[in-house]
């Protein structure tokens, strides 16, 4: 599903985020990306959905070589990658329903399909009664559920979640993790960067630890391994 081959990423200021990273993620895996702040985790995530491009190396996602991808193909590839952010990134002047539907409108899905699918994902994230609420009328956990619904509405094969529980209290965080586990069970591959030691140590999925731009550990049913 995802393969990185000898990836280097150096920023214009000379900062080196990744140094020779090679990793393979299979279809339907659930992988935690852990490591100290500034280790290269966010860069690793952004490379998957082509927000950043490597200085050197090759990345394949869903069989596409992202470095050889023509510009007109980028939206098609991104359509199959759902992205969830720590700060939700919801559009404040749109309702929960409209935020989710917008992800389908940009790919010009038929209106009847948009309506049906948006209602489906609202129900999946347990917000079917909050479709008409604006982001400022929702709790943090509810906003993150809307963000998850938006990320999955186009049935992506890969979900990239960058600190999805970072702004949430422990109880709400566990609700979000159960939801992500259900989405994974339904067939999506999930890559999740996190500093949440309790979640990683309890759920025991594959753990890839990045330190100083290098993969320090790659363990099945791994543990967090840091004191943050």
TrEMBL record:
Q: What species is given as this protein's source?
A: Paenibacillus antri
Annotated membrane topology is: Peripheral membrane protein
A single GO BP: cell division
Q: Where in the cell is it found?
A: Cell membrane
Cell membrane recorded as keyword: yes
- State the family it belongs to: Belongs to the ABC transporter superfamily.
List UniProt keywords, sorted A-Z.
Answer: ATP-binding, Cell cycle, Cell division, Cell membrane, Membrane, Nucleotide-binding, Transport
Q: Which domain of life is it from?
A: Bacteria
Q: Which InterPro entries match?
A: AAA+_ATPase, ABC_transporter-like_ATP-bd, ABC_transporter-like_CS, ABC_transpr_LolD-like, Cell_div_FtsE, P-loop_NTPase
Give the signal peptide, or none.
none
User: Does the keyword section mention DNA damage?
Assistant: no
Subunit relationships: Homodimer. Forms a membrane-associated complex with FtsX.
Limits of the ABC transporter domain:
2-227
What Pfam families does the database record attribute to this sequence? Answer: ABC_tran (PF00005)
What is an example of a GO molecular function annotated in this UniProt entry? ATP hydrolysis activity
**Per its database record, what is this protein's job?**
Part of the ABC transporter FtsEX involved in cellular division.
Quote the protein name from its UniProt record: Cell division ATP-binding protein FtsE
This entry carries the following GO cellular component terms, namely: plasma membrane
């Amino acid at each position: 599903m995802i393969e990185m081959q000898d990836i280097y990423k150096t920023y214009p200021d000379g900062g080196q985020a990744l140094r020779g990273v090679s990793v393979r993620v299979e279809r339907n895996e659930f992988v935690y990306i852990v490591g100290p702040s500034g280790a290269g985790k966010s860069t690793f995530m952004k490379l998957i959905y082509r927000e950043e491009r490597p200085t050197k190396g090759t990345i394949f996602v869903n069989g596409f070589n992202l470095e050889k991808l023509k510009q007109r193909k980028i939206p098609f590839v991104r359509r199959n990658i759902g992205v969830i952010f720590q700060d939700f990134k919801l559009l404040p002047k749109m309702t929960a329903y409209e935020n989710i539907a917008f992800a389908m409108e940009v790919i010009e899905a038929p209106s009847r399909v948009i309506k049906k699918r948006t209602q489906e994902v609202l129900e999946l994230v347990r917000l079917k009664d909050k479709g008409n609420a604006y982001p400022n009328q929702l709790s943090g956990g509810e906003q993150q559920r809307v963000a998850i619904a938006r990320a999955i509405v186009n049935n992506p094969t890969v979900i990239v979640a960058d600190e999805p529980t970072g702004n949430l209290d422990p109880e709400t965080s566990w609700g979000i993790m159960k939801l992500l586990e259900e989405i994974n069970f339904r067939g999506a591959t999930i890559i999740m960067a996190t500093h949440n030691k309790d979640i990683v140590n309890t759920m025991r999925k594959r753990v890839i630890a990045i330190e100083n731009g290098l993969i320090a550990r790659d363990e099945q049913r791994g543990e967090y391994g840091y004191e943050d």
